[in-house]
Amino acid sequence: MNTPTPHNSAKLGDIAKTVLMAGDPLRAKFLAENYLENAVLYNEVRGMLGYTGTYKGKPVSVQGHGMGMASIGIYTYELFAFYEVDTIIRIGSAGAIDEDLHIGDIIIGMGACTNSNYAQQYNLPGTFAPIADFDLVRRAKESADAFGYKSKVGNLLASDMFYDDANSLADWQKMGVLGVEMESAALYMNAARLGKRALTLCTVSDCPFTGEGMSSEDRQTKFTNMMDVALSLL
């Protein structure tokens, strides 16, 4: 019996087959309190809040995953491997690399470039290309368009560094990468390894090349367009 885990106090059956995950557990709390019916708190270990409820009659869970590949790697692995979760949709923030993207736009992460060594654990004889589940990507784009929300599909950069001494975003920009965040590659690799489904949706919260940015409070409460899209995929 692998549940509860060292990082999650839920019992098997407490968590839905589909989980929406945010780096900030307060964003998970906001979604649970404003979108879900009959939401029940199943985890608060290390402050990483997790709730299960229903949305339009469909069961769904929402949980924080913290910052960085190491953190999301732990939480998503446990959900996939020990809690029988089938689908994880990350609802995160990203810095815009593509100059056509602005504050509030949605990036649908079809692929995840990375400077992380997360894939080293698999002992592969080459470079693994982490990608999202195609059906989730397709439906997310259709949903964003139907809502009238500006979105773009393409590559994310999942970086191990928030403060990058190499100042490398311009190098990724020339390769058509849309935005930078810190988790998608590990999520996609865990999903691939365990035969599950995953997608990263990111709202543009800052534009490093122009200096535009959101406040920390806005990051908690003003990502509702992305939440609409994620919940439409249930």
Q: How is this structure best described in words?
A:
Helix content is 29%, strand content 29%. It has helices at residues 25-35, 69-82, 134-147, 169-173, 184-194, 216-221, 224-231; strands at 18-22, 37-43, 50-55, 58-64, 87-96, 106-114, 151-158, 179-181, 197-207, 212-213. It has 234 residues and is an alpha/beta fold. Strand 6 (106-114), helix 3 (134-147) and strand 7 (151-158) form a beta-alpha-beta unit.
Work out the number of β strands.
10
- The radius of gyration is 17 Å
Helix proportion of residues, in percent? 25-40%
In terms of DSSP E residues, the strand content is: 25-35%
Largest sheet: 5 strands, mixed, barrel
Instruction: Label the overall shape.
Output: globular
Distance between the termini: 28 Å
Strand pairing plus helix content: what structural class?
Answer: alpha/beta
Order of helices and strands: EHEEEHEEHEHEHEEHH
**Quaternary class:** single chain
Summed over residues and divided by their number, the pLDDT gives a mean of 96
- Low-pLDDT segments, ≥5 res: none
**Count of alpha/pi helices:** 7
Main β-sheet, spatial strand arrangement: 5-8-7-6-9
Summarize the structure.
The chain has 234 residues and is α/β, with parallel strands linked by helices. It has seven helices and ten strands. A hairpin with a 6-residue loop joins strand 2 and strand 3.
